[in-house]
UniProtKB/TrEMBL annotation:
UniProt family annotation: Belongs to the prokaryotic Ku family.
Identification of the protein by name: Non-homologous end joining protein Ku
Gene label: ku
Subunit details: Homodimer. Interacts with LigD.
Gene Ontology BP terms: DNA recombination; double-strand break repair via nonhomologous end joining
Organism the protein comes from: Pseudorhizobium pelagicum
Biased composition (Basic and acidic residues): 255-266
GO molecular function: double-stranded DNA binding; helicase activity
């Protein structure tokens, strides 16, 4: 992958077949605007330092290590080499354990996506795997050591290659049952449900990531530019929250029915002013026709 550095290099293995591959970051925040922390008194940049909690002295990077708190203020020191020794030797092998239906994994388990790209010597085995998975409509579950942790990885076909998404472990995913345990039991039907379905029908579209602009990032860029050029700063637009009487009224408004409902009283009032329910011009024409058709009385 030209111009990019692999986050991990190793081998992917399926059955007795293996080939060299690399994992490349699929999503990055490096293009976002970045701010530094500034001392408001001097205007100088502030550097982050680590301070000993007791002596309050600065601790250099080489003097820092990991530790696990066993009691308040009591720690077991864990050396990085000791951590590395506990990691299985399969840290360079992405071994496929099973092939599963593509949509079997709930995306709540998705962590980070990586492009899985073959090296120059393993392209034929890689392409064979990709084509077989594509035609069989399956994804693959594999495991390896990534960034000093054993990780489960979901591998799917993606364009000319494969995409590998690290998965959260079950203990890391919070229970959806607990998240929704306070949801009230209710049944929505009738006009309320029909209006909601109507709104969905009018908003149907297709997913195109190019149409989703980062408005926050754009606003930050405009702010920075205005500050550099000494121009007036952009003002925040005041948001007027809607205050519907109830959910049904809000749904009617969203479905475009508010205008229709408001026009009815005006039309009724206009008809009432017309007397017999016909426009004035129509009443005048009808009156003239009736007078012309009526028999003429002779004088005397």
């Amino acid at each position: 992958m030209a111009g990019h550095r692999a986050q991990w290099k190793g081998f992917i293995k399926f059955g007795e077949v293996s080939c060299g591959v690399g994992l490349y970051t699929a999503a990055s925040t490096s293009d976002r605007l970045a701010f530094n922390t500034i001392n408001t008194a001097t205007g100088n940049r502030v550097n982050r330092v680590f301070i000993d909690s007791e002596t309050e002295e600065t601790v250099p990077k080489e003097g820092q290590t990991k530790g696990f708190e066993v009691e308040s203020g009591q720690y077991i020191v864990i050396d990085p080499e000791e951590i590395a020794a506990t990691i299985p030797q399969s840290n360079k092998m992405l071994e496929i354990e099973a092939f599963i239906p593509c949509r079997e994994v709930d995306d709540v388990y998705f962590d980070k996506p990586y492009y899985l790209v073959p090296d120059k010597t393993g392209a034929d085995a890689f392409v064979a795997l990709r084509e077989a998975m594509s035609r069989s409509k399956v994804a693959a579950i594999a495991r390896t050591v990534l960034f000093r942790r054993m990780r489960s990885v979901l591998i799917r076909t993606h364009g000319k290659g494969l995409i590998a998404t690290t998965l959260n472990f079950d203990y890391e995913v919070r229970s959806s049952v607990k998240a929704f345990e306070d949801m009230p039991k209710m049944k929505i039907e009738g006009e309320m449900l029909d209006l909601a379905k109507h709104i969905i029908g009018t908003k149907k579209g297709e997913f195109d990531p190019a149409t989703f602009d980062d408005r926050y990032e754009t606003a930050l860029a405009e702010l920075v530019k205005a500050k550099i050029e000494g121009k007036a700063l952009p003002k925040r637009k005041k948001i007027e929250p809607s205050k519907p009487n109830d959910l049904l009224a809000a749904l009617r408004e969203s479905a475009g029915l508010k205008k229709t409902e408001e026009e009815k009283p005006r039309r009724t009032a206009a008809n009432a002013n017309a007397g017999d329910g016909r426009p004035r011009a129509a009443r005048g024409t009808a009156g003239k026709a009736a007078a012309k058709a009526a028999p003429q009385r002779k004088a005397g």
